[in-house]
Amino acid sequence: MGGARILGTSDALLELRPEVSAPPTFQVVQGRLFTDDFEAVLGSRAAAQLGLGIGDQFLGAHGIERGLASDTHEQPYTVVGIFAQTDSPYDSAVFVNVNTVWRAHELTASDPMNAFAAGGAALDSQLTALLVKPSGFVEANLLWQEFASGQVAQAAFPGQELGALFDLFRLAENVLTAVGYLVLGMGALTVFLSMYSAIAAREQAIAVMRSVGGGRATIFRMVMFETLAIVLIGALLGRLLGYGAAFVIANVLSAQTAIPLPLSYLVQLEPALWAMTLLVGVGAGLLPAIRAYSVNAVDKLFAA
After folding, report:
1. Euclidean distance between the first and final Cα of the chain, in Å?
2. What pTM was computed for the model?
3. Residue ranges per structural domain of the chain
4. For residue 237, what pLDDT band results from cuts at 50, 70 and 90?
5. Mean pLDDT of the residues in the chain
């Protein structure tokens, strides 16, 4: 429905909380929770995205994109409440009671699950997923094996799937870390080559500075200062561009997937990162500074 998923649930939703001592995850900030069929409570992002408020009505449809007219249900939903922002995919959802979902698909059984257990053909064709809480670990494995050996349905452990997803994220993090070190090395090499070439082209100017009283140590410090300045300015611009790109990418992915991607500034890492930047600058500028230090003023002036 306009890009927002319609979820059938119950008022027990308001009792869900991340920890026993934590407040409930879902808080109604406008209106109330649904009490009747076809009453809907919107997530904060869904309310803003759809432009709906308390008392507004809308029609549900199959899919999240605009489709055929026949895909739209005739029974209107009425907005009776809006949830506070949870910073989760639920912010993009529309919540109704379970019976609304069955009625929207013209399933009028008073107890849909009991009807399914009795072998109702209509309900059998409509059931797409079940969430089961086994009584123990052994029972969970037996249930999974029973489905794994059949061809009718597929069973999955949510915890196992989330663990695989986090492993994938860790792998991507390791790859990006390796790429970051590679980019750092390439940056150091680029600064070194640039400074070395610049010193080679400025040997005449260095010789003139030496002839008017500039000491070798002064020239050495000048080259090192120039190298460090270039590296620090590059690091600052890189941070600005990096955080800007991360902000844009996070917003785009959040809009496409409805999964919030919060950005955090890792203050505790900044000292190490800036120390590494200075180390790269010193390493990249050391040989060019030594070359400038070693310039023979007499030879270069007479060669000119």
Report:
1. 79
2. 0.57
3. 5-128, 159-303
4. very high
5. 81
Contact of 6 with 94, CB cutoff 8 Å: yes
Q: What is the pLDDT of residues 161-190, one digit of tens each?
A: 788 888 888 898 899 889 988 988 898 899
Taking each helix axis as running N to C, give the angle between helix 203-211 and helix 216-257, from 0 to 180 degrees, rounded to the nearest 10.
140
Residue 127 has what pLDDT? 65
CA 222: distance to chain centroid?
43
Of the CA atoms within 13 Å of residue 10, those in its CB half-sphere come to: 2
pLDDT at 75 over 50: yes
CA-based nearest residue to 288, from 223, 202, 211? 223
Helix axes 203-211, 158-201, angle to 10 degrees: 60
Q: Which residues contact 39 (CB under 8 A, 6 or more apart)?
A: 77, 78, 80, 96, 97, 100
User: What pLDDT, in 10s, does the model give residues 114-139?
Assistant: 444 444 444 455 566 777 777 888 88
* Under 8 Å between Cβ of 34 and 81: yes
Q: For residue 112, is pLDDT > 70?
A: no
Beta bridge partners of 133: none
Report whether 235 contacts 277 (CB < 8 A): yes
Any idea what the Cα angle at residue 80 is, between residues 78 and 86, rounded to 5°? 120
Q: Which amino acid is at 144?
A: W
The CA-based dihedral angle spanning residues 103, 109, 115, 120, taken in that order and rounded to the nearest 10 degrees: -80
User: What is the number of other CB atoms lying within 10 angstroms of the CB of residue 251?
Assistant: 12
Alpha helix (H) residue ranges in 149-269: 158-201, 203-211, 216-257
Band of the pLDDT at 70, cuts 50, 70, 90? low
Cα-Cα-Cα-Cα dihedral sign, residues 167, 172, 177, 182 = positive
CA distances from 206 to 201, 224, 290 (A): 10, 14, 13
Model confidence at 207: pLDDT above 80: yes
